[in-house]
Amino acid sequence: MIKALLEYNFLQNALLASILASMACGIIGTIIVEKKLVMLSGGIAHTSFGGIGLGYLIGVEPIIMALVFSVSASIGIVTLNRRSKTNTDLLTGMFWSAGMALGVLFIAFTPGYPPDMSSYLFGNILTVTRSDLIMMLSLVVLVTFLIIALFNTMRAYIFDEEFCRVLKIKTVLLDYLLFILIALTVVVLIRVVGIILVIALLTAPPAAVRLFTYDLKKIMIFSVLAGLLYCITGLWLSYSLNISSGAAIILISILGYLASILIKKIISSAKSAKR
Amino acid sequence: MHGNAIEIKNLSVWYGNICALSDINLNIEEGDFLGIIGPNGGGKSTLLKTILGLIVPAKGTITVFGKDPSKAADQIGYVPQFSTFDHYFPANVGEVVMMGRLGRKSSFFHKYDDEDKSIVRRVMDELEVAALRKRQIGGLSGGQIQRVLIARALSVEPRVLILDEPTASVDDTSKLRIFDILKELSRKITIIIASHDMGAVSSYVKNLACLNRELHYHGEPSIGPAVIDRLYGCPVDLIAHGVPHRVLPRHMEEKHD
Fold first, then answer.
1. Which of these, A11, A137, A263, B73, has the minimum number of CB atoms within 10 Å of its CB?
2. How far apart are CA B231 and CA B210, in angstroms?
3. Order of strands, edge to edge, in the sheet holding B59-64?
4. Considering the domain B4-254, what is its CATH architecture?
5. Rounded to 5 degrees, what angle do the CA atoms B138, B144, B146 make?
6. Nearest chain A residue to B50, by CA
7. What is the ipTM of this complex?
8. Using one digit for the tens of pLDDT, what is the confidence trace for A91-107?
9. Is the CB of B90 less than 8 angstroms away from the CB of A219?
């Protein structure tokens, strides 16, 4: 694989994509898990399918339209939630299926032979292009910068929103910001694991890491590393066994989570045996 | 010391078609230790949240040290009800107490400075939670969590401390300890505490407010059966469980100050 990696451009791209995806999903995934926004993130991801369909229909790069759709979904969900007091769970469900429905509709309207959607739905890390990488890099830099810059505030906001409101911290702004960052992260991950599998890659690394530490910063850092491990192992499996990269990465992530539960059990039983 | 900390005039709050608070008039003196009692759903939390600026009243005015609640964040320390946050959140006690120092300084690349750290150290000593500094909040007992939350509220360095049901989910020993701490604190700052635990509250506070949509009583904590009747709509057992005081009028002479 190392030789192939030096030789083939597409493998280098795939490796870089893995690194970028792991950074985004480790940082934002941790927040999603702690703030219990897993389903909301799934909703945002699926809404972006509408964008991909529209991209094909009007002849704009589908991933750019996916970005537009997912960011609009984030803003829409926060705004509707505030205005109408409808709970986010309900809104998420509606955005989720509306996005998928629009996607199917737009593709049906697209003239000519229907495009293959499976690389958007399930990801294909081996076909990541240079322009994909540039977009991913800029989104990851933005997400990482904002979370580092606002870390103390973000932590307090995730932990206890009401207390932040009492301190007159602008939680509405933080709502919008966080949801938009989730949208950006989802788009970063679409090329790697696809719309449908995105949730597992966002949640599996922090879910495993938080078994071992209760320091938010450490959960983020080790989630990035865990995500990287999963992505690279999945990439290697996908390349050498010629299987779908998205599926490989997700199954490795889930196995990683199960393994960490096992390790946690062994550690705690070893500890209690010592006593 | 005897200006009004909080002035409430003709305050009404509605949730849709439901009236939560109706025409409340209440002045809370600086230095007061006020207990707000009343049945569940009687508007205790709503009143506190209006003072905190979390709820905008439909009618009437409310001022905190002469200012609108939305501009008084640095004057108020808030201890929420036990259940408002995730107890398994990855944060240790020190980090949680430090959150009280975020205030309006929260900007890009915010760092807690030495002053923040020394204030936090002081309040943690005061609330006897300094030894728990590195512990995860999920591993604490109910009483310990409550003291951590009081420490967080005090790290704001407020002039008023507002507590919503601070003893709802703690055992009797911790309850007494928390009330003793509050009593001690009340020498320095104004304290407002909402509780349905009438017995415990009445034996510690300076003044009582009885709230059930309307303000039925405000004054010294010796309330007669008539007020209780109006408040709860039925006679209520006034014996204070686990607290060495009763609130019935004839026992008032036993109360210490």
1. A263
2. 7
3. B18-29, B4-15, B59-64
4. 3-Layer(aba) Sandwich (3.40)
5. 95
6. A166
7. 0.85
8. 999 999 999 999 999 99
9. yes
